[in-house]
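LacI family DNA-binding transcriptional regulator, Curtobacterium subtropicum. Tokens?
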Amino acid sequence: MAAVADAAGVSMQTVSRVARGFDNVSPDTRDRVQRAMDDLGYRPNRAARALRSGRFRTIGVIMFTLASFGNMRTLEAISAAAAAADFTITLLPMASRTGEGVRTALSRLHEQAVDGVVIVIESHIIDTAEVVLPSGVPLVVVDSTGTTDRPSIDIDQAEGARLATQHLLDLGHETVWHVAGPSASYSAERRLSAWRETLERAGRAVPPVFPGGWSTADGHRAGLEIAARPEITAVFAVNDQTALGVLRAAHEAGRAVPESLSVVGFDDFPESESFWPPLTTVHQSFDEVGRRAVATLLAQIEGTAVRTSTDLVPVSLVERASTAPPPRA
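Tokens:
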């Protein structure tokens, strides 16, 4: 800093004001200081700033897996929103999706000197007595239950499932079958519950659920049975990858989609419009989840009161070519 001040012909205090983005410096002086910084390779030291301010400008992110599309997009969105606010992130994957896993991750993050924590975990763990979230630590929960007393952000999973199921009913299908996700996933559970409630509200039969997971292999396994049963004309799959597995099984069995079988997914990941046929699906905005999670966390860090109820991000149905009215008898 002293070298920059000497090169720019200003005081060290002026260099500090420029480095911290204060606006009480004339444009000419700011340009001169910035050129000196560039010439000398000066970069403000975050550690030194943290010692002075008590802030580390770092957000900790606890996440169980990076394998799923949703988690990767959520992490990307959180990273982008944090960077826009001049924060970095420290990622700490959990060894297991258990209460002990969450407690261990929180303990390790305390050692990393973070200003707040975002927990991304599609599970009931946060609801249980196994996990006591630390008081006094700014924290936001993403993709879990809304029963915690800490702020939470989530996609409107139930509305997405209602839109998917009602779309198929509106096309004229007598009922809609469901390929479910993992039983431990709260997102999958909400989609299943809303599918069932939509059918019940419409006075339609609620068929047995095809158990599954998040993968294409899970969808293909269920799809083989679906394709062999001509009475099944409409399927709501828990996500796009599962829907892709159903489509593959239908093609292998000679079931034409959508002429003989309609399929709807959930996610709207980029490749879904390139499926054959292009997939009707529920779009969820992971970018908005990241923005809201970081904004809520930063408000806590700044001492602003935030609501503790779940902030639901809206969804929308994207109609493509994988759905149509049922075949005529």
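The mean pLDDT is 86.
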